[in-house]
Every structure is written in structure tokens, then in C-alpha cells.
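Notes from hallway chat w/ T.B., transcribed later so I don't forget. T.B. wanted the structure written out for a chain they're using in a teaching module, and asked if we could keep both sequence and C-alpha cells in one place. Agreed to drop them here.
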Amino acid sequence: MPEYNNIVFISAFTIFATAAAIQLFYYLFFYLSVYVYKPDEKKPGKEPVSIIICARNEAENLKNFLPSVLEQDYPDYEVIVVNDCSEDNSYEILGEFLEKYPHLRISTVNKDPKFTHFKRFAQFIGIKAAKNEILLFTDADCQVESDKWIMKMTSHVDETKTFVLGYGGYKSGKGLLNKYIRYDCMTIAMQYLGMAIRGIPYMGVGRNLVYRKSVFFENRGFGSHNHLMSGDDDLFVNSNASRKTTTVEFSEGSHTRSVPVKTLKAWSTQKKRHLTTAPYYKLRDKILLAIEPLTRILFYSTFTVLCITNYLLPFTLAIFGLRLITQITVFLLVGKKLKEPGILLYSLIFDIFSPVINGILFISNSGNKRMNNAWK
């Protein structure tokens, strides 16, 4: 029995050390690159831009946040709001803005009980209506951080770079749920921005994303993903972006901030919808994205076993400490760059439980038909 126990403990320590090494690789190779990244100097963008915003029953958000998009310091741009089957007073609010902002355009999709559709249909309507080649996407519940947003997000677009991935964070508020939503958003951004910097673009967020109109139609639009309720942004990037065609922009003033949901149920529904796109990523991306949370679970579980059994405890604590210091340092540096204050300490706890939470939500999506009518 002692010999058997030694084999178990040695195996646990080996798994623990291997998981820690993989975790350190992700932090130092992918996540830290978000902090150390220095983009090539570009002249301010001057090419005409079409901003596309899809809205369904977003009257209050349009009233509060659309002016930040309409009052940009940029020489030539249009803002296309696709008012998709809204039943509130969105049309009246947009009508008031039309009188004040001549570069605002409205495309209306009327409700038809015989035709139900997802958000990507409204997105397609907006893209078709766009007069310009460069398309910049955000959401109705997003506020842009500066009047230089368009200039910053489009300054890297040229003949080669046809995708620009930006950062879309959430507004800070009270409560644990708000902090978890912001933590989750930031860690996802560390992944997709860091991987794009390292030449592996796998997704972007529709809250802050640029690509060329010609690229959209040359690649048959949303193509084989048209039947999905989500993924109009990340799956299009996953299918068509590459190392040569993709860059990132997350300097100060280029971010957008969305209004986070207020209840756990609403967040759970939103998160489940986002997770439906993961099975459609490229195999390479699915493997890279699965390894990190899997090794995190193995890291914490074997650490617990080794501490309880007191096996090689000094080495165990040293490895745990190294990973912890790296985690805190990277999270602190990237958090400052992405302007996400107040969640560092909470992230130490969230880091333990988030892989389990995401796993439960992902599994619960199986066979769930009720979400198929969700628009956003």
C-alpha cells in the first residue's frame, strides 16, 4: 500500500507541475503580450467609415449612448442603425437624432410573424446598406470612450490588415455579479487579443470590431453559420481572419463600454448563448481554448491533494507561489491597460471557480431549444 500511495502522490505532483507550467506559458506568452504590445505607428485614418449598430427595443440605450458614436472627431463617416422589429419608442428617438445628425441613417426591419430571425440578419441588412468599404461595429448598449474612437479603430486598416479586433468592456457597478462579468470579459479579452498578437486570431467581439465590406461578401457573409443564434462576430473572425490580415487596437480611447445585465439569470442566459459558438471554432482554436481551463482545474485540484497529504509541500508551495505571483502581476498590468479597476482581488477567487461555471453552462446548453429564438 505505501508503494501504491507513492505512485499516486508522484502522479499528482507531476500533473500539478505540468499544469502549472502550461498555465505559466499562457500567462507569459499570450496574456502578458496584451500589456507589452506596441503597435506600428500609423497615420490617423481618413478613409470613409460605416458604423453599424443593430438595435431591438433599445430606446433607452440609444438615447443615452448613440450620441457618443454620432459625435466623433472623424472627417467622413456614417452611422447606420438597424431598428430591428422594435416595439418601444426607438423609432421616435432615432427620428429626433435624424434632425440633429445628418450622417445618421436608419434601416427598419418590420415585424413579421411568419419570419423570425437572429441578430445576424439585422447585421446583414446594415452591411448591405453601408456605403463605405470599412465597417466598424458596436452595439446599442455601448458607449465609446472618446471622440477619437473611429480614428483609433480604423487607423491600422490597409490593403493587408482587413480585421481590427478591439476591446469591448462593461461599465463598472456595485455587486459581485458586476465584478464577475467584468472579470470574465477581461479574461476573454486577454485570450483573443493575446492570441491575435501571437498570430492566432480566433474571435472578435461585435461591441468593437472592424473589417472590410469586400471581405464579408468575398467570403459569403456568415456562410455556414447562418442557422446559429450567435456568432455573427466571433465566428466570422474565426473563419476568415489570419495572422497576415488581423491586427488589434486597445489603446486608451479605443474601448467601448456596455451596460452589464443585473441578474444572475440574465447573465447565465447571455453566457450560454455566447458559448454556443465554441463548437464551431477551428480545431486548433478549440484545443488551445480547452487546454487552459482544463489545466487550471487540474492545477487547483492536485494542489489541494498535495497540501492535504503534505507531499513535497515546499516544492508544491513554491510552484503555486510562482504561478500566483505571475497571475497577479499579469492581471494587474493588463487591467490597467484595459482600464478595469477594482477586480484584481476578486479575480483570485474567480480564477478557481470560473472553469467549473463555464463547464456547467456549456453542458447545460445541450438539447436546450428555448434559446433558439433569442435575438441577442
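Follow-up for T.B.: Residues 40-281 form a domain with the Spore Coat Polysaccharide Biosynthesis Protein SpsA; Chain A fold (CATH 3.90.550.10). Might be a good example for the class.
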